[in-house]
Amino acid sequence: EAREISRKHIAVFAFPFATHAAPVLSLVRKLSESAPDVSFSFFNTAQSNGSLFSKDDDFERVKPRSVDTGLPEGYTFGGNPQEPVNYFLKATPANFKRAMADTGLPFDGIITDAFFWFAKEIAEEIRVPWVPYFTAGPRPLLVHVDMDDIRARIGINGPEDQTLDFLPGFSAIRAEDLPDGIISGSLDSPFAKMLHKMGQMLPHASAVAINSFEEIDPIVVQALKSRFSNFLNIGPFILRSPPIYDSDIHDCIGWLNQHPKSSVVYIGFGSVITPPPHELEALAEALEACEFPFLWSFRGNAEEMLPKEFRERTKDIGMIVPWTPQLKVLGHPSVGVFVTHCGWNSVSESIIGGVPMICRPFFAEQKLNQRTVEAVWGFGVDVEGGKFTKDGTIQALKMILSSEKGKLMREKIGVFRELALKAVGPDGTSTANFNFLVDFITRC
Ligand code: U2F
Fold first, then answer.
1. Is the ipTM above a cut-off of 0.95?
2. CA-to-CA distance for 283 and 306, rounded, in angstroms?
3. What are phi and psi of 268, to 5 degrees?
């Protein structure tokens, strides 16, 4: 590896759960295209790397390297997604440090998932810059940075309906919209503690990158710019580099081609969540009653989990598959509404497709995303009562697909779509910020 030593060499730390490692790898691949004199070591679990890198990849400049999962010998997954996360967090930062040492190479900088606040300390030890990348939106970022202030003003388990009007742009956001662990829920979980530390450390980073664009939320972006040295909105990054998993083996696009404009319901809940059985049943009943055509990306066994014979009865209007090329699906003209859990990648892709949303958030910052979509941006709704019921879902579907209000939402999200495209265009803000980042890592 002698030749690599003459180049700059950057360590990248990925968070190997949910849709976190893929956006970080997309960023690093794009950086490496623009900065050919820089090589990267991509530290991640072997399993996550296995799903991200294919045999045909050129590993020369972005090299996958394994870190320990922290799982005990003989561990078998018991069904709680938080469990492997907690083991992993316990193994940090020692696992990353060990893997760095194992390369036998010096490092000139560290780029990490923003979660990994401890990278600031590692970077200080070896005297290199640290650039964290936040893979969700600007609002949760501000909430984590201002967590102590929020706790002081609202109080632990304070009134749920209190608004956060003391934060710029947050007058429509209520305490109940905050992620778990800020003022309620598991305040002392390893995850909540990590996010708290993250909020304290990010202002000390050399630059903070985010998978978003400035024009989506100017007031909040301004507030964040005042807290960080270099706040770099470089997204929606998926517009710069195509999704890592985007094959269409079930021919969703062929199926969508058979339907009229803005008529199809697309349903998907990201990479972690399957709604509970009674909600799946309610959603299925609503789809059947409305008779809108639907495409459903279903995690789990649809035969077992959906009402008996539902698939048979709806086979002329519905397509259920285990995975879709979601960005392409949401960009298809026949999709009229996205029923989503409001993961940040899904929200971004819906904006890029110009598709209004019906939101059923589950965990992390999804509730905050939902509230923002509905009450700040105005291009989506929640389901009545916050959970899928047959009647509440029918109401939301009809509103978006066949009312004047729904049409207005489509127009509104179309405006954001244009802003997103412009941001990554030749004169766009995200392009300028990305170029700054390329320059920064080339010089570090
Ligand atoms: C966590 O997000 P999730 O993985 O649960 O959900 P998303 O952020 O929405 O990302 C899902 C991605 O998977 C893709 C889809 C998104 O890019 O296009 N996908 C697909 O291509 N085909 C499918 O059939 C289904 C999904 C977390 F839960 C969120 O709260 C965070 O906002 C997010 C980012 O940090 O990570």
1. yes
2. 9
3. -165, 140
Give strand ranges (E) for 186-269: 208-210, 231-233, 264-268
Output the tens digit of pLDDT for each of the chain's 444 residues. Answer: 444 446 899 999 999 999 999 999 999 999 999 999 999 999 999 999 999 998 777 778 999 999 999 999 999 999 898 999 999 999 999 999 999 999 999 999 999 999 999 999 999 999 999 999 999 999 999 999 999 999 999 999 999 999 999 999 999 999 999 999 999 999 999 999 999 999 999 999 999 999 999 999 999 999 999 999 999 999 999 999 988 888 999 999 999 999 999 999 999 999 999 999 999 999 999 999 999 999 999 999 999 999 889 999 999 999 999 999 999 999 999 999 999 999 999 999 999 999 999 999 999 999 999 999 999 999 999 999 999 999 999 999 999 999 999 999 999 999 999 999 999 999 999 999 999 999 999 998
Tokens of 421: 């495209």
250 is catalytic: no
Task: Please identify which residue in the block is written with the tokens 């009562």.
Answer: 385
102 carries an active-site annotation: no
How much distance in Å is there from the Cα of 345 to the middle of ligand 1? 5
Find tokens 């985007």 and name the residue: 246
Nearest CA to ligand 1 atom 25: 270
Cβ 313 vs Cβ 241: under 8 Å: no
Q: Assess whether the C-beta atom of 212 lies below 6 angstroms from ligand 1.
A: no
pTM above 0.80, yes or no: yes
Q: Is 48 in the pocket of ligand 1 (CB under 6 A)?
A: no
Under 8 Å between Cβ of 438 and 431: no
Distance (angstroms) between ligand 1 centre and the Cα of 7 equals 34
How many angstroms separate the alpha carbon of residue 365 from the centre of ligand 1?
12
Per-residue tokens: 390 = 């047959």
Q: Is-contact 310 254, C-beta < 8 A?
A: no
**187 CA → ligand 1 middle, Å:** 25
| Ligand 1 site, residue 135, Cβ cutoff 6 A | yes
Q: Is 372 in the pocket of ligand 1 (CB under 6 A)?
A: no
